[in-house]
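Q: Could you fold this chain for me?
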Amino acid sequence: MVTRAVASEPSDGADLPRTLAQSAGDTGTGLVSRLGTSRTAGSWVDAEGRAVVAVTDDEAAAEVKQAGAEAKMVRYSMRDLKTATSTLRSTPKVAGTAWSVDYRSNEVVVRADSTVSTADWNELEEIADAIGGSVRMERAEGTFTTRINGAQPILSTAGRCSAGFNVTDGRRDFILTAGHCGPTGSVWFSDSQGSEQVGRTTTQSFPGDDYSLVEYANGRAGDGADIVSIGEGQGVRITDLGEASVGQRVFRSGSTSGLRDGEVTAVDATVNYPEGTVSGLIETNVCAEPGDSGGPMFSEGVALGVTSGGSGDCTSGGTTYFQPVTKALAELGMSLLVGAPDGAGQGASPAPSAGATQGAIAPGDATPGSSAPVSGILDASTLLSRLLNPRNIGPGLLVMGGSLMALVATRYIRTEQDRKAYQRYYSATWS
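A: Sure. Below is the predicted structure, expressed as structure tokens.
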């Protein structure tokens, strides 16, 4: 999670990872794009880190091999698989179901959790039979839920979540987190007493997507905005953003279950939560638990997603879905706050593009990167003291300081009702 309150500048930036991932995922994606959806059916990265492309004819296989990737002949093209998912989308939604394209098995996998009735399961099987052999039905353990309740560090009357990545519009800084965490206007705190305000939700997209923006109370993320906390005072530097690749090893950090790792099993997945349907998600076998919602998923310093929901837990394992960061930032018009690869300092990433893909590394060789202690906070009182310091005062700065004091007073008055409601909501948890 990354927030002004819980993540900050490391003591020695040189100890933090600044490596970007390998290009196997990019190779596969490029070949799929060039050959087209009627001749290919997706790509993934194998256990040795090599790009594998599913193809439907010998000529396509030859082109893939010539490009240095491995070709796998399959029955169904991506066009066939997309037709199947389109048919599923057009049917009445059943809460507790999800589907995604499994590139490696060349199938659309439909999962139904324990809440789906026998009657609904039978109807889904009839739909799958009508589509044909490209659809596989599976029962999932547990239930598909959004992961909102049960943990700090950001809390409001809307619930409890983990912060994701720090982003900016060039003027103000925000936390990118899950959309289901709370509606627009939700006020977030870093403590259960409601005395340390983090910020307020200004934008929410859920269902459909699952992302939201929390604007920092003082407008700034502060020092170390490019650091992802991984627990026990440790952090990993984020240096870029990208797209997830099937087969890629990834890491997720959350305020309930801490740092966990696993593999991307599918992209463009759809989940029918009880609250509504969310599409375009990254599917993984990384575990998650309530309170991990909104937390960051990354690989080799590259931001990939924020935790949406899933089934299972970190005792028995499960399936977890993530909102892609690139899509959220593109729709919001935001940039990710990242660490400069050359160690020159913090900056904003370029606008997301189709070419900003994340390659993958061999699952057996990946590590979350070297860690360094996380410390220090730049909060509103620190900023105000700097503005009022006589050594920093120039023409017009006193006026700016006075305006800032008035703004702080106005925000305090405006927030009091939210603070009191928050305290009432969590009064049972106070010590």
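A (continued): The helical segments are 24-35, 58-66, 78-90, 118-131, 325-332, 380-388, 397-426.
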